[in-house]
Amino acid sequence: MIAPQLLDALKKPQTQLSTIKILGNLGDPIAIPSLSNFLTDKSLDLRFYAADSLVKLKEKKAIPTLIDYLKGSDTAKSAIACDTLRQKTGQKLPFPFFGSKEEREKSAAAWEQWWKEKGDRFEFK
Fold this sequence. Notes:
- By secondary structure, the chain is an all-alpha fold.
- The protein has seven helices and no strands.
């Protein structure tokens, strides 16, 4: 079980990002409601790492957010998103880590199609 102080750290801008990452790695689902609040945050970094942490915690509603990051120009975030999606969903859809924006968008479209077809029935392993 996570310490309440860790959830309190989400309220402080200077500790939010590192706390979000820690909560995802700890694996305690009690953090899901608090992390979910960041899925619509104006900060792209907080939104990204909240989605990454939520998928690690097996929260399905964050999968589309990670899929969106596959299309982005930030190759580091695209790689993290793909790695988390592959590990947590069991899907091994191709992704050109160093490909062009068009190639990444095509791969993201395949992930979106998978989610559209399987998302409502998908269960984490």
